[in-house]
Amino acid sequence: MSTWGIIGGTGLTELDGIELLGEDWPETPFGRPSAPLVHGRMGSEEVVFLARHGKPHRIPPHRVNYRANLWALQAAGVQQIVAVNAVGGIHPRLTTGSFCVPDQIIDYTWGRASSFFEDDLEHVVHVDFSWPYDAQLSARLGALLQARDLSYLQGGVYAATQGPRLESAAEIVRLERDGADLVGMTGMPEAALARELALPYACLALVVNPAAGKSSEVITMASIEAVIAQGMQQVKQVLSELIAA
Ligand code: HPA
Questions:
Q1: Is 94 near ligand 1, meaning CB less than 6 Å away?
Q2: Where are the transmembrane segments (predicted)?
Q3: DSSP 103-141
Q4: How far, in Å, CA of 54 to CA of 70, rounded?
Q5: Ligand 1: residue whose CA is nearest its atom 2
């Protein structure tokens, strides 16, 4: 038996097939997490679900209290985390509605509280972040996407941008030149904080739009929401299978 942490992004505020055990909204040394932690069971596994943007969805990416979120999950006994992120697709295979399980990340965010050691020079730890995502967990996610015959890219470089606006086309050209395959606003500092806590962490990214300049169409919230509605159903199924396995 193990305890799973699931961080739901835009469009994922609850899980399917979970036997609810209760909710709590703990105080941490960094404040409160984005939303109450939802504790549940799936088969013999325990699950703690957290809505990254709050419930209802109100907290923009640059205002998420990532430190409180990660701290609270670990304090709740979580042993591994799957983060769900809605992203823009840069790589040609990352078309709208497809998935990516990235294996690398580049951080373009700024001004976010991005370490548990920020004010604590005495105990500062320079964690190894060469491979930001847990390889085993990522491989399991990929296998489940494949088994469902979903379109996905195994591995890829996640560019974490500041938001809340979307990028300019020139910014996407730059990210692509840097090697980025997908772009989102919430991948960092979340991944680094999980590493500081030594929590295995993997990302399941749903492509909800072509990145800026990759299509002639204007990116609208309405078009993104339509993709999210369908894509997050598939995410829920993959997560149930991951946890129940
Ligand atoms: N850019 C950044 N973040 C995003 C995007 C995007 O195109 N789509 C969803 N989140």
A1: no
A2: none
A3: SEEEE---SS---TTTT-GGG------SS-S-HHHHHHH
A4: 14
A5: 184
